[in-house]
Hints:
Number of strands: 22
Distance between the termini: 24 Å
Shape: globular
Bound molecules: zinc ion
Amino acid sequence: MHTYPGNIHVHSRYSDGSGSLEEIAADAAAAGLSYVITADHETLGGLPEEAIRHGVAMLVGIEINHSHCHYVALNLSEFIPSNDENPQLVIDRVNEAGGLGFIAHPFEKGSRYLEKGRAYPWKIWPVFRFQGIEIWNYTSHWRGRDPSLLKTLYWFLFDRKGAMDAPSSECLRLWDCYNIHNYRITGIGSSDAHAFPYNLGLFKVKVFTYRYIFKTINTYIVLEDELSQNFELAKQQIIGALREGRCYISFDSLHSGSGFSFYAAAGDKIVQMGGEITARPGVCLHVKAPARRSQIRLIRNGRLFKVCDGSQAEFNVAEPGVYRAEVFFRPLLRRPRPWIYSNPIYLR
Length: 348
Ligand SMILES: [Zn+2]
Ligand SMILES: [Zn+2]
């Protein structure tokens, strides 16, 4: 199997981001990414620019809705209008147009330093027929921490990783809940990168550049074949992996997520993330973490099931359930930090 890191939910000059697609692609290439999915607010203006640029597959999506219920959709060739009050209608229209969509930053909280505390959470539940959910959004996470100005400055100047503690437990619970009820929702990590400059008196400062943010929260897709150099084929490979949940999220600032794997094996049969296997004795879940100082946690039906220290673990499981893996990174002399989140494997 081959894994490819990418960054999802990036804003460009087509809305309120600061970079052109060409510049974003160059920064993504420098950060070692294989694909980027842009999601400009209520426009597919960048669509004619979709291509492989600097070796990076640049897919153009859209972020639909204004004041809440933001929905990141891709694989669209037609514009889907916003409908804040009826987000189910937005989801259904995206599906009818052949797209797939992700609920963006569903539990976002505001920061007193930005837009007077304004936030853009998903306010209308329940909704159905969406394909995925952002379980860890870099920009939104910073916004929601909302510490004192001193602490913010400390994080920003000395410990940017420190601000990113873990995905919100509400969000993980919601994701698990949908999957326990067999909705098969793909969890993704995203950046919501804008790279906009802030005015500081005479100076303009870009707090988080694209290049920096592309080394933070990424979504790795898992492919049987190599990612094609033909754009249309690569696009279908990326969309296929995201649709099926053949992907995982890594907070790459701690350590690269490259080399992680999670699969089920039973005899000759191998099932990757997003897949289903019949529950029976002899099913083994294999987890490989890309760093020796790892703690592997197996989650079953949303609850911690087993924990194992080290870079490799095998779990014999016979019970049906929704199994996913989390890996915590263990820096020297510090507590383990949430790092990698797999998509589930379904034992039925
Ligand atoms: Zn948003
Ligand atoms: Zn956004």
